[in-house]
Amino acid sequence: MASLDPRFALRRTGGALLVLVLAFTAAYVLLAALPGDAVMARYGNPDLGLTPEQLAEIRAAYGADRPQILQFLDTAGSFLRGDLGYSVSSGAAVTALLGEALPSTLALAGSGLVAAVLLAVLIAVGATHPGLQDLPGTRVLRGLLRGLPPLMVSLPVFWIGIVLIQVMSFQLGVVPVLNASPMQALILPVATLAIPIAAPLAQVLIRSIDEVSAQPFVTVARARGASASWLLGRTVARNALLPTLTMAGLLFGELVGGAVVTEAVFGRLGIGQLTAQAVTARDTPVLLAVVVISTLVFVLVNLVVDLLYPVLDARLRGPGGRPRTRSAAPALQDPVDEGAPA
């Protein structure tokens, strides 16, 4: 396996850090631009009977009376030290709140991504496998499989979740709604996430398989006696999976967003429930931390994809093994293995 150019890795890492800084700044500015503040939303209720002087003391305790630029710099410095502040609504440390909610959301998002990739591969292989073209009755099936991703991508996440609960739990009783084990409690949420995410993955994979199958080196390998399964598994898939890898990295951000909706539909504890509560209470420290953590996860996943891409695809490595940019990738070359049929 080729080595990774350190300068390429530094450029990609620097770009990832820049995205994090911009996301933090944008989130802070947008939250600060909202009318009112979290302190007044929590303590400004007349029923609490607090005097203006007491409200001013509370605002001073939270630093809400300071100029915005100083609050921004203090918050940025605290985030760099790992101090995410305290929740205005509950008084608990934001780090502790995220520590309780994040593992559940990451488990749901990670399982959803794995299930989406598997579903996308099954759809793409069934729609493009050359060995199925000669079988009777498979033309309609392959047409349905090709038309399935556009239908799947149009389905809202919350609607999929409601339908799965109604059918799988209430009608068929396959997955219990109450007293479910941790594994059973993941089945329907993971399926809810995987269906819309698998759709664009399957579309990209089908298109990539079609494009690679039309390349001259595939025709040459087929003329040399290579079987359809050998071509798909050893030659076509190896080239077609690379664009799908990029799409999977980009869709991970959508997975995190979909996990928030899914957790609300299924009543799961996680970032989704924490975010909903923070929005209701105008809990700015929690909202800012959720945005930054979500951005960090998304940036890390895409950074790993960027760093793996030139290692996996020799076409993206220039002279001396240095990675090219993706847009500068040359045309497909013949990657027929030495083990191809003679």
From TrEMBL:
<keyword id="KW-0472">Membrane</keyword>
<keyword id="KW-1133">Transmembrane helix</keyword>
<feature type="domain" description="ABC transmembrane type-1">
    <location>
        <begin position="102"/>
        <end position="309"/>
    </location>
</feature>
<feature type="transmembrane region" description="Helical">
    <location>
        <begin position="186"/>
        <end position="206"/>
    </location>
</feature>
<dbReference type="Pfam" id="PF00528">
    <property type="entry name" value="BPD_transp_1"/>
</dbReference>
<keyword id="KW-1003">Cell membrane</keyword>
<dbReference type="InterPro" id="IPR045621">
    <property type="entry name" value="BPD_transp_1_N"/>
</dbReference>
<protein>
    <submittedName>
        <fullName>ABC transporter permease</fullName>
    </submittedName>
</protein>
<feature type="transmembrane region" description="Helical">
    <location>
        <begin position="286"/>
        <end position="309"/>
    </location>
</feature>
<keyword id="KW-0813">Transport</keyword>
<comment type="similarity">
    <text>Belongs to the binding-protein-dependent transport system permease family.</text>
</comment>
<feature type="transmembrane region" description="Helical">
    <location>
        <begin position="106"/>
        <end position="127"/>
    </location>
</feature>
<dbReference type="InterPro" id="IPR035906">
    <property type="entry name" value="MetI-like_sf"/>
</dbReference>
<feature type="transmembrane region" description="Helical">
    <location>
        <begin position="240"/>
        <end position="266"/>
    </location>
</feature>
<feature type="region of interest" description="Disordered">
    <location>
        <begin position="319"/>
        <end position="342"/>
    </location>
</feature>
<dbReference type="Pfam" id="PF19300">
    <property type="entry name" value="BPD_transp_1_N"/>
</dbReference>
<keyword id="KW-0812">Transmembrane</keyword>
<dbReference type="InterPro" id="IPR000515">
    <property type="entry name" value="MetI-like"/>
</dbReference>
<feature type="transmembrane region" description="Helical">
    <location>
        <begin position="148"/>
        <end position="174"/>
    </location>
</feature>
